[in-house]
Structure formats: C-alpha cells, structure tokens
Amino acid sequence: MSDFQLALDLGHRPALGRDDFLVAPCNAEAVAWLERWPDWPAHALAVYGPPGSGKSHLLAAFSSHHRLGQVVTTTGEALTVDAVPKLVVHASVVMVDDLDRLADETALFHLWNLTKETGRWLVLAGRSAPARLRVRLPDLASRLAATPAVGIGAPDDALLAAILVKQFADRQLRVGEDVVGYVLGRMERSFAAARAVVEAMDAASLARRRAISVSLARSVLEKMERDDRQGDLF
C-alpha cells in the first residue's frame, strides 16, 4: 500500500491528531480504492456511508496527501454550472462531498462529463450510493448508476473506542479507559452517536466543573436517553 494510508493499531495506539484517519475493516476498502488512484476502472468513484462515518475526513486526508491544488473539493449544495469550469481547469481530481444535498443536477451532469472529457477524476461522497440518488435527468442517472461505488460500513467496537478517544483528545479532554469502556457498552453503535456523546460529556463537564468520570458519563447517557424518548413523543 502507498503511504497515503494512515494506519492505526486500534488496540494500542489510537491516532489523536485531526489529520489522522482511523483505518479499520469497515472503511479499509474505501481507503484502498483511494490509494489506487489514478489506477481506477473509470474516471469517477463514489464513497458512501452513514453520517459521521468519516467520509469528509477521508477526502481531506486524500487531498492533503497530494500536491496543493491537485485536488479541489466542493459540496453538492455549493455546486453550480458556473463553478464547474473553475473546478476542473487546474485540478486533477474534483471531489463533491454531501452529494445528498445536491442542488443543481445540471451542474453535476456537466461536471461528470467535463472531468471525463479532460482526463480528470471525480470523487463523489454521500450517505448512499449515487445509483440511489433521486435525480430527474435520465443521462445523469445513467452515469451515476455506472459509477463504481464503495461503502463505509458500521464501526466495530475497536474503531468506536478509537473514535471516542480521538474525539476526547481533539477537545483536549483526558478520560480513563473505564469511561471509554462504560460509554462503549451503552451508546448507539454509530459514528454520529460517538460524536454526540463526546459533545454532551464535554458540555456537562464544563457546566459542572467536573472531570469526566464514569459517574458523569452515566448521567449524560441517561439524560440523552430521556431526551430521545421525549422526542419520540412529538
């Protein structure tokens, strides 16, 4: 494998910097595909997965690994017809994140065609495979359906634990293994939940002026569960 892969021994040495991407079985295939660039079977590639699964982080890691200006990134919401030539003129790879929030189908159609015609590459990232994206333009739908797509799956316990440790560290919070183990055994099994739990525990720690402990973690998780139940009533 190339040095693009930011490897992580999940059992011993979690990466704590914001520029580190945690590689695990659930995302290893997506990492491998990006490592093989430009040796792809087509000029376009789609990466999809649930919210908070690390799609944007993976794209950022790919971008930072290559020469400045070689890779440009936009979002589905920001993509416009006028922006397409400017995105393609200098970059070798154009990446569109948050494809689910696509605002202009014609812009994506032009971008798909122009990157292919000019020998550029296109990376699309969203919650679901592009073939499932509801678009009205038949020609765009056929192109999206033909785009190779690789999914990021649900995290296992080792990756969730590493994500918790990393997100605590990103906030300059030190927590013990007992806290991580307690939270891991009781939280929803998703990337988004890990982020929400860390945010809530950080806020509670600041509000109560207390270090993060199992006791604080218990109260935060219980409150989040109560809030979820109340939300289901409305």
What's the story with the biggest beta sheet? Answer: 5 strands, parallel
Low-confidence stretches: 1-19
**What is the total number of structural domains?**
2
The neighbouring-strand order within the major sheet is: 2-3-4-1-5
* Percentage of residues in strands: 5-15%
The N- and C-terminal alpha carbons lie at a distance of: 50 Å
Highest-level CATH class of the largest domain: Alpha Beta
Proportion in helices: 40-55%
- Identify the CATH architecture of the largest domain: 3-Layer(aba) Sandwich
Query: Gyration radius, to the nearest Å?
Result: 20 Å
Q: What structural class is derived from the secondary structure elements? A: alpha/beta
Shape: elongated
The H-and-E topology, N to C, reads as: HEHEHEHEHEHHHH
Average residue-wise pLDDT: 87
Number-wise, the strands total 5
CATH fold topology of the largest domain: Rossmann fold
What is the number of helical segments per DSSP (H or I, 4+ residues)?
9
CATH homologous superfamily heading of the largest domain: P-loop containing nucleotide triphosphate hydrolases
Protein name: DNA replication protein
GO molecular function: DNA replication origin binding
Pfam families: Hda_lid
Domain AAA+ ATPase: 41-174
